[in-house]
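Side project, low priority. Logging it here so it doesn't get lost.
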Amino acid sequence: MKRAVALILMAVVVLASGCIGKGVGLTEEKVLEALQSIETASYDQNFSMSMHFTDPEGNKTINFTMSGRVLGVFNNTAGLERGNMSITMHMMGMDVNMNWPYFVNNSSVYFMVDGKWYNVSPDDDLYSRAQGSLNVDYIRNLLRTKNVTIEKLPDGYAFRVNVTFWEFVNATNQSGYLNELWSVDGERRVNVTTNSGWVEVHLTKDGTPTFIETHMEVILAVKGYDGRTTDIYVTLHESVALSNINEPVEIKAPEGIESAGDFEEIFW
């Protein structure tokens, strides 16, 4: 009998401890404070995209895939960032491979192609991909716009939230770029349907982010000049690991950056 009572008391203590732990766990406010304190970090970002659609002219299915990796480091105080981006694209039997170093100085983004530096326009998708520091803003925007539940893990905390395509775009500050890209003479030529989308963020016990994963499946309905609409099916997946947070880092402007050309020159 005494043993049974002891077991019951132990169970009550465990349950009470669980309730208390949940009540005083990590809050959104603590995560926002941790985000605000991030000055430097290293990042390892992997991304992939697959896309297919039927060509309305030849009734042929077109497939396109892209995958890439970005390794970099940033210093928010200095507004500097450097790294290397590798991308592989496959379409219609052709493979294209790119392996480009990059450098960021505040709002200016540069890529080195064939030994020469080029300045990338903010309208280019590469502009944001080269800025791993934007992942901090990404998490901050999610916390401010979505109803997030932070859950306890054995080694920290995490939250997972469903997002639509445009919620993702707004959280990553790409809405202006896409609205301009997808409109012709003031008319929106692309409409998006989100089939599924989610973001998962892992946090340390003090709220510092260590891992971000995003997955999205969407349909882009693209209206052509002839009035016909083509549905493009797109799957996006991206993961980012953050490390060496607030460790000392030295980022210097590379040689030749002062004479950087326009990025569009490489396509002429």
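Brief comment: The CA atoms of residues 73 and 247 lie 10 Å apart.
Revisit when time allows.
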